[in-house]
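re: ur question from earlier - yeah i can do the single chain one, its not a big deal. heres the input i used so u can compare w yours
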Amino acid sequence: MMHVNYRKWARYIHKILKQFGAIDGPILDIGCGTGRFLQELQRLKYGIQGCDPSLHMLKVARKRLEDVPFYQDQLPEMQNTTAQKFSAFTCLYDTMNYLSDEAALEASLVRTHQLLPDAGIFVFDIVTDVHCQQYFQDYQENEVLNKDYAYDRSSHYDQEKGLQYNRIRIYTPNGTYTEEHCQKIFAVEEIVSIIENSTDFHIIGQFEDFTFDAPDAMSGRIHFVLSKQ
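and the output i got, formated as tokens:
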């Protein structure tokens, strides 16, 4: 996506992983999309893999990073992911907001806990109501990825229902494919309650967007760092 600074994301996640001791083993990016973030993480010498529910996105990712394993999988099921294989999971750019409700969020956290080894780290972010009101009330973007692939995206935020609607059209040599998604904008208190009361994860970090500062009521994006202890 044109407005996303993937290098900045990778460097920030690197700082988190380094601070919390998860830089030795391979990293799995859940919801990897077209692999732009993983491309930047690879430049930082990480062993990487990616999974995504979209076969069309995975085709682009495989073309971008031919030496990196990509496969189809998604939260909360994660049926194709090998347990105890990765030292850390990342799930970024509000992918967790694509979970439909609190039950799906809880199931996803329980499942990632099962798949991580002891001392494994799970880093994810969520966007808040503040962010959606500011950026996604009525939003459009488009990008040409390469000579074969392009996409456009439109978004609308229903504040009353706490739902953000997204439509993505992907243009390929074989035709145009449309995907429609709905994001649930969870209250931060709900997420913390689920982690503390329904999983065995420990919250070891909760940070304002691209910082190590504690979030507040005006935070637009919050990064969670969880540890399996």
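Residues 64 and 84 are 27 Å apart (CA to CA). not sure if urs matches, ping me
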